[in-house]
Amino acid sequence: MYVIVAGGGKIGANVTRSLLRLGNEVTLIEQKRDRFEALEDEFEHQVQRGDATELFVLERAGIARPPDVVLALTGDDEDNMIIGQIAREKFGVPKVIARVNDPRNQSHFDLLGISPTICATSSVMALVEHEVPEHDLIHLLELRGENLEIVEVQIDGDSPSAGHSIEALSLPEGSRLISVMRGGRAEIAVGSTVLEAGDQVLAILEPGKEDELRRVLLRR
Q1: How far is the C-alpha of 3 from the C-alpha of 67, rounded, in Å?
Q2: Is the same domain home to 148 and 82?
Q3: CA distance 4 to 16
Q4: pTM
Q5: Domain with 13 in it
Q6: Is the domain of 142 the same as that of 192?
Q7: Residue 73 near residue 99 (C-beta atoms within 8 A)
């Protein structure tokens, strides 16, 4: 693949390193002089200095080819949105992946149709919630392009679904249980699977169906 990486911070540099190790062609763009010079020592001609929100910088990096993937990984969400828009709309890049630094800006990326996105803060919070028992429904993954999300639900002794098979539950339209973790072992959820207290259930559903799913499985 040919990949353009915008942003030479730790994430951008590590991704570039990994891509090159796998035999891909990469151009890394970094704006700050001191950071660029440090990267140039390692990556030589594969790193260019400039502002990746400017057309001539992207064109110099070869975006008109176009690349297979553009990674907008700067520390500025506005820059990442601009880079993503230019790559998709002006140059028809087939795959754009953008970094979201502040989860509050996720909706702006969604409105612009920039997907998929990665957000370290949201990922860390999902892991934290996973370890906190009072969180009965945890968002694990958003599939924005497919308008779906994956959540985890903890079944306890008071849950109305405990002791019932999946096929006997009136699950909300647009949702499906996909796996059940019990005693440290996971199994694919099928209609005859009976839920028990202590089960950790993965479900895939349309956004906005969480409360309906919670009522069926947990009645809270």
Answers
A1: 6
A2: no
A3: 9
A4: 0.66
A5: 2-118
A6: yes
A7: yes
